[in-house]
Design goal:
Elements: H1 5-43, H2 53-68, H3 71-77, H4 79-86, H5 92-116, H6 120-128, H7 133-144, H8 146-167, H9 174-184, H10 189-219
Helix pairs in contact: 1-2, 1-5, 1-8, 1-9, 2-5, 4-5, 5-8, 6-7, 8-9, 8-10, 9-10
Length: 220
């Protein structure tokens, strides 16, 4: 079936907007969750400032389980939860819920790795000067890892773009849904090429922006 390119470009703009909304909202929510979980995973591990092995072991297991589930399966598996939260399992709003569940644990691991890269001597020096655990977290750990955290969030954002495209396979909206509806179901190669190029441009722009911000923060 021949595509009406005049109408299609309008659909492209709408789909791009949907993708940006999905990625933006899910990134904000999952970043808050991921940073919180990542910090807890670091400070509650053995020998750290708030050592609590039961909390660490339980949280570590939960994060591992959620990270083990492919996004497309996770999206289908939590449809009842998605319906409970947003009232539907189809469309842009419905895709945001599984995106948050998917990205939260992923960001938690990235944050954990960034914080573990900090020299333990810095934390020990803070404790020796009488810093409380909360002061150590907010004045030492997070500021020291800020440049690395920006790169981690950039990586997570790119992962969300890919996941949002996969959401199109089950009616999640955005560029992925457009590619499925036009490119796959109508066997239109040109449409697939356009959507792929747009996704590549979006990802490259995000990666370049993240690199620049991280580099400037590192110089400071």
């Amino acid at each position: 079936m021949q595509v009406d390119w005049g109408t299609f470009w309008v659909d492209i703009l709408d789909a791009t907007g949907d993708t940006l909304i999905m990625v933006g909202i899910s990134l904000l929510a999952s970043a808050v969750i991921g940073v919180l979980l990542g910090v807890i995973l670091v400070v509650t591990r053995k020998g750290h400032i708030l050592e609590n092995l039961p909390v660490f072991n339980v949280l570590n297991a939960i994060v591992n389980v959620l990270r083990s589930i492919p996004f497309i399966i996770l999206m289908v598996a939590i449809i009842p939860f998605t319906r409970l939260v947003v009232g539907t399992s189809i469309g842009t709003a419905a895709a945001i819920v599984p995106l948050i569940v998917y990205a939260g644990p992923y960001i938690a691991r990235l944050v954990e790795n960034s914080l573990l890269e900090i020299d333990p001597g810095i934390v020990e020096a803070a404790e020796a000067m009488g810093a409380t655990p909360w002061q150590t977290i907010f004045r030492i750990l997070l500021p020291e890892a800020f440049s690395s955290l920006i790169l981690s969030l950039t990586t997570a954002t790119i992962g969300l773009v890919g996941a949002s495209a996969m959401a199109g396979a089950v009616g999640g909206g955005g560029l992925g849904d457009l590619a499925i509806a036009y490119g796959y179901q109508r066997f239109d190669t040109d449409v697939m090429i356009v959507t792929v190029v747009l996704l590549i441009v979006l990802v490259q722009g995000l990666q370049s922006s993240g690199n620049v911000i991280s580099r400037r923060l590192r110089r400071r």
